[in-house]
């Protein structure tokens, strides 16, 4: 499939598209013909996904049997939530080679999905970042925030650690990050103080930029 990438210039990268029918599924199927033509010979079991709200890694799992395809698992749901991919929307996956994909997301009306400027990197050389939409369990008593697994695996050590969160006003909060038995990193002690001070509520979104080993800049988008 050819797509224009600006002023009539065709994008000739191998590509496939997928409609989102069930947003909460934790896996996404890659068409068998695409997998067999472009991915099967690589023998690599991880893929990198890059979208307008961040990038991360996911596991590639091949199904067995005639005409079988492969699925993107263990990281796909984090990517879908980060980009708020809803039912009826569809995605174009452009293959860059070396198990790396650029993903474009379109609304049900066929128009490219636009994300607020706050979701975009601050510059082409911006720091690693992820976006998190605030849910009920992220605010209130005993609230926590789970760091997306692809981001955590790529940029953070899997251990208990401290992190400084700095907001757009330059105010900082020290939080603890704990490693769970399920293999996740979770912002725990100190997160509630940040959420309360910034009056976070369900439906808001935060952009976390890792600017140093123990420092994240946080931008908040109100619902």
Automatic annotation (TrEMBL):
Keyword DNA-binding: yes or no?
A: yes
Cellular component, GO annotation: nucleus
Q: Where in the cell is it found?
A: Nucleus
Q: Pfam families attached here?
A: B3
Q: Which residues form the TF-B3 domain?
A: 130-223
Which keywords are on file for this protein? DNA-binding, Nucleus, Transcription, Transcription regulation
Would I find Transcription regulation among this entry's keywords?
A: yes
Q: Which InterPro entries match?
A: B3_DNA-bd, DNA-bd_pseudobarrel_sf, REM16-like
Under Gene3D superfamilies, the record lists: DNA-binding pseudobarrel domain (2.40.330.10)
Q: Write out the GO MF terms.
A: DNA binding
Q: What is its main location?
A: nucleus
Q: What is this protein called?
A: TF-B3 domain-containing protein
Organism of provenance: Perilla frutescens var. hirtella (Perilla citriodora)
Lineage, opening ranks = Eukaryota, Viridiplantae, Streptophyta, Embryophyta, Tracheophyta
